[in-house]
Amino acid sequence: MKTFCLTTMIALTLLFCSNGMQAQNTKSKLKETVVAYEVAGMNDVIIKKDIPYLKTSDSTLKMDVYYPPKFDFKSKIPAIVFIYGYTNNGQIKSVGKQLRKWSAYTSWCQVIAASGMAAIAYETVNPENNLTSLMNHINTNADKLNIDANKIGAYTCSANSPTALANILNNSNTYFKCAVVYYGIFLNTDFKYLSLIDTLSQNMGFVTPRLPEPTSWKKDVPILIVHAGKDYVPHSDESLTGFIDKAINQKVPITLIHYAAGIHGFDVYADNEDIREIIKTTLEFWK
Description:
With 287 residues, this protein is α/β, with parallel strands linked by helices. It has a single domain, classed as Alpha/Beta hydrolase fold, catalytic domain (Rossmann fold). Helices cover 31% and strands 23% of the residues. It contains 9 helices and 9 strands. A 9-stranded mixed sheet has the order 1-9-8-7-6-4-5-3-2, sandwiched between helices. Strand 2 (46-55) and strand 3 (60-67) form a beta hairpin. It is globular, with a radius of gyration of 18 Å.
């Protein structure tokens, strides 16, 4: 897994064809919403479902692990964990099911597995605490899961991002070696719009853990941020700008892709060559 030596910020303005057309082939009305990218073998990946990772007195939380096609389970491979910030009730309220079972995520996991890595999706009731339990379980059972515990990356997006970044940028993070954030919500204690985000979180069912103070941010985890230029989330531009300014000041290795024509959820609600190139770049970043 590649580590960046210097803080980098790459702003990519993705251009359209010379005819100037900017319309996107929206898939939001389709019954099944899948990622706008295909990899050979993605329909043949090996899926181990409902693996318990946390048992309590009244419930058992489970995870699904996607492996490459024809994986022999004789070696350990890198893994990408999909980090969620919605409670179980919040997930069902938002998409009608657990996010780990939603086609948008299952298709992403298939693409990752077909690209030679494992992908991990899980259920959560308490996003902050359950993420810690999940990562402890993966680390403890790395041999059994055939996961290389030293090569674990993260994917998060939208309102899941506060939970992911609060963990990844914390100096106690020893698990995640890189992270990808698509059209995220970025929180910090001094951001102007926290009250608005907190209201959204209460209505939608996601949690909003605050980032640690920037001076204590972990500085050896490369982060790829993909910004949607036409995001409908209130003040997403301002929150991103504030986050990037602090990340650069703290020498956190940041790569930024600014997709000017991107809508919120563009990777699953739209489909064009620019989006496919962004997803391809994301896979290369993880690798």
